[in-house]
Amino acid sequence: MRNVRKAAGLVSFWVLAFSVPVADADDGAKPYGIEGYVPMTTSRVAGSPEPPLPFRAVRAFPRLQVDWPVFVMTEPGSSRLIFIHDHRPEKKFQVCRATTDQAATGKFDVLLEVDDPAYSICFHPDFASNGYFYLGHNGPNKALPKDADKTCRITRYTLQRKAPFQLVENSAQIILEWVSNGHNGAAVTFGLDGMLYVTTGDGTSDSDTNLTGQGLDHLLAKVLRLDVDHPDEGRQYSVPKDNPFVGQEGVRPETWAYGLRNPWRMTTDPKTGHIWVGQNGQDLWEQVYLINKGENYGWSVYEGSHPFYLERKSGPHPYVKPTFEHSHSESRSLTGGVVYYGSKFPSLHGAYIYGDYSTGKIWAGKHDGTKVVWHREITDTTMQITSFGIDPDGELLITSHIGKDGGFYTLEPVVPDASSETFPRKLSDSGLFASVAKHEMKPGVIPYSVNSPLWSDGSQKIRFFAIPHDADDNDAAPKISAGSNRGWSFPEQTVLVKSFAVDLVDGDPESRHWIETRFLHRENKEWVGYSYRWNKDQTDATLVDKDGVDIVFKVRSSDGNMVDRKWRYPSRAECMVCHSRAANYVLGLSTPQMNRDHDYASVGGVVDNQLRTLEHLGYFKLKRSGGKDAAFNSDDHPRLVNPYDDSEPLADRALSYLHSNCAQCHVEAGGGNSQIVLSFGAKPEKQNLINADPLHDRFGIADAKLVAPGSPERSILLQRIARRGRGQMPQLATSLVDERAVALFREWIQNLSEDAAN
Predict the structure, then answer these.
(1) Whether 576 contacts 359, CB under 8 Å
(2) Reduced 3-state DSSP string for 565-611
(3) Is 28 exposed, middle or buried (0-12, 13-18, 19+ CB in 10 A)?
(4) In which element (H, E) is residue 242 found?
(5) Which contiguous run of DSSP H or E holds residue 557?
(6) pLDDT tens-digit readout, 565-614
(7) Which of 405, 412, 401 is nearest to 357 (CA)?
(8) Whole-prediction pTM
């Protein structure tokens, strides 16, 4: 699909004409890059180099077909689960109920359906007699115009206290409302003191541009504490007299603690009374707070324990650091949890258990009221975790908001095995290399290349994939699911291999030196990344510790001086930041990246289109515009272009660069906090890029836009590409500016017209 542009940036800028020189339509006579499938039988990449984490996630109630659950808890004094379901076909949110017996058979009842996104539920301490439960939700205010601000609400409902325990008709009573257009909070819990605690966020979807985080004269960015049993006249609550700021001028007396950005989940420890809040961070850090009376958690002067906008005015109280904190290398959208007192897992007794929506990791921590006494990761899952709950037996439940694989999960112990002892510690142990020093691969390991490479500080890269052959598969090639946009889906035990080389003398290929080889390995439906560090003799590479390592090496610059270069061998967790679920984990092995010619000389082949060769080998079957029996034609499939190739259309180059370097985060559910979508082919209304206001740092630029057509100097996108340090993009894995990319985007933005997004 080659679209010819008459003027780069002056036509519909989002429709990419992915184009590289590729083979013409298959005439049946052209030889294939690799003549025939060769089974890959020698891989020894299996298991893990570390002992397994102590738990794994398993389905609870597998017959309960709830694909998009948001929240779960147990109705007090019963065997009934109460959960919130994001019922996507009807765009409704349902409050549902099922006994554990019903859930086991897949049955549940819908108690309530609301139009607004619903987040959280809690039950009144005297629920057994009054039947009250409280729902936190956010949506348009029907009494106001459609374009008015959204409103968060805490609404009380009543359930019958006798069978069939249905919702009492017309029992809805709004307890509290506040304007909020993002970062809503709306989590609810009752403390052991009988008070209702409510979270609020900073009310925006950006970096607190309304400056609410440290303000005290409003309800935003706080934990509120309300007395709902003794309401004042004219409203549904009163302010407890022992709230910390009662009687202070310019302070909303409902405030219990403040300085929060986007709290997601709150719980009360049923034994100690501790109030826990999980919070989504912004640029680099996620947080958990043990909430205490009158404390200030720093947003947006601080992001967790790290400076964010120090020039902003702080509240009158010193800021308190998070109880637990995670960098975006391992957590990117934190989901607060619950305190466990079940009987199945004695080691977790009294632990606060929480996780992450984006990475699926789960942690547990114990606190004695004064300090953290124990904290560790307990499992790594493929879930998109939206909540933690406790079932009627006191055991853990987890909701995963992930479509057909979504639903309810719990944990089970992992039995240790010996795989950590046999995992290859050197490349020469992997079974993938015929000669490590020569980078010659074993039979069946397939080389490949990409159209638009990821920027890796100017390093040179070569790539391979290996899919171990199943002996029961009649000598047929293992199957790859080759979708059109995202990364391909590979079978179990697949290993992706990428090696990095640097020139120790700038611009001199003769000085090229291997520095790192990375594996991405799929096992038990999960991908894990491993890094190997090459030795000085260039004969082998050794596995890097799971936490990664930073090194500095010397390079002779073009002016003859020796300069220091930094290199980061990523941690296991950092690998999966880019190789995200939203990108289907695999980046380079995607149709638009692979639709190009590759020289297969290293395996005795010829130059051929990679899609054509891989289809010939039997890895997949591609669609053809002329029907299933038509000859292969590369133009039937999307393709990116090389951003550094001046012969390609300017807009194609820019958008290809964004797709390969940025889209794995900046895509729906990708973990990027901004609202732009940078995957190729995204329509303007989804991209939210051209003439869009920045949602994060403006870097002091007046009238800044993400991309300001004709004005590179006002374009935040260019600012982020052109800097290293705070505010750089990508956030991880690079320490050098891609100067060619800076020149590319300056030229592209300069040539964009004002109507480029239309």
Answers:
(1) yes
(2) EEEEECCHHHHHHHCCHHHCCCCCCEHHHHCCEEECHHHCCCEEEHH
(3) exposed
(4) none
(5) none
(6) 999 999 988 887 788 777 788 999 999 999 999 999 999 999 999 999 99
(7) 401
(8) 0.81
